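User: Hey, quick favor. My workstation is busy. Could you predict this chain's structure for me?
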Amino acid sequence: MEHTVRTARALEHVRVAIVVANEGVEEVELLQLWRAVVNAGGRAEVVATLPGFVETMHHLDRGDRFPVDQVTDWAREEDYDAAVLPGGVVNPDRLRTDAAAVDFLMAIFEAGKPVAAICHGPLTLVDGDLLAGRTVTSSPSIRSDLRNARAHWVDESVVVCRRGINTLVTGRRSRDLPAFCECLTEEFGRVDTLV
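Assistant: No problem, here it is.
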């Protein structure tokens, strides 16, 4: 019981940006990551490249639509304590071409704030040159991309890398979400907030 109470409040006063493109994010990843933050007492906000809605995917099939809370053009690092990058095959490819999204993520890293990315999500971090020297995992289909970005890729369900300017939590795929969510909740719970 005590563990449940602690977990429910682990992210109290922590504001998390869930950074996505408006199309192509894997629905189960978006929803479970959002719920993990909220269930731990944090505030999760969907930050997308355009206002309106995010259209999700169930692998190759269209999923539901979810409202956007903030756009990357207006997102500021100082307004968030951490960031999360869900996967989906199309999502990171579109997100990495949005200069405002890459700049926002670079600012989060430079401020020493934790970032978590799962499945294809780490691909967005390549364009900000944010993976050099970091140990990461991901969908095996992008391991060469991450290695080419000078990351050390490993085939594990979840990896926490503290070698760098911030803590980076990476997860392999959707079926690793339970372990990934538990790990990011623990790591984000270490955030020193201003509140």
